[in-house]
């Protein structure tokens, strides 16, 4: 993993090597296409989904458009309150 990617990942993991706090590395597994998830993008957590045509620009889409930058980790959305 490159230094820039590792730096962004550490921002989302808080304590590297201790626990991923539910975050899944995109190097280990990608989120299902079109399914809403939380994404760690350069140290910021955003809502988005993996697009079905990753060869054409950024592979992730959010509520405000294409998510630019390096997405290093993702996690499923939490269940809604009851």
Description:
The longest helix has 11 residues, at 3-13. A hairpin with a 2-residue loop joins strand 2 (37-41) and strand 3 (44-50). The model is unreliable at 1-8 (pLDDT under 50). With 82 residues, the protein is an alpha+beta fold. It has a 6-stranded antiparallel β-sheet with strand order 1-6-2-3-4-5, covered by helices on one side. Helices cover 13% and strands 30% of the residues. It has one domain. The protein is globular.
**Major beta sheet summary:** 6 strands, antiparallel
Overall radius of gyration: 13 Å
Q: How many distinct domains?
A: 1
Shape call: globular
Helix/strand structural class: alpha+beta
Q: How many angstroms does the end-to-end distance come to?
A: 40 Å
> How are the strands of the largest sheet arranged?
1-6-2-3-4-5
Strand segment count: 6
Strand content: 25-35%
Descriptive labels:
82 residues; alpha+beta; 6-stranded antiparallel beta sheet
Question: Quick summary of this structure?
Answer:
With 82 residues, this protein is an alpha+beta fold. It has one helix spanning 3-13, and strands spanning 24-25, 37-41, 44-50, 60-62, 65-66, 71-76. The protein has one domain.
Give the topology, please.
Elements: H1 3-13, E1 24-25, E2 37-41, E3 44-50, E4 60-62, E5 65-66, E6 71-76
Antiparallel strand pairs: 1-6, 2-3, 2-6, 3-4, 4-5
């Amino acid at each position: 993993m490159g230094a820039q990617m590792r730096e962004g990942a550490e921002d989302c993991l808080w304590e590297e090597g201790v626990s991923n706090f539910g975050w899944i590395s995109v190097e280990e597994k990608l989120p299902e296409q079109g399914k809403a998830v939380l994404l760690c993008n350069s140290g910021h957590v955003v809502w988005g989904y993996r697009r079905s045509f990753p060869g054409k620009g950024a592979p992730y889409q959010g509520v405000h458009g294409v998510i630019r930058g390096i997405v290093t980790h993702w996690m499923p959305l939490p269940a809604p309150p009851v």
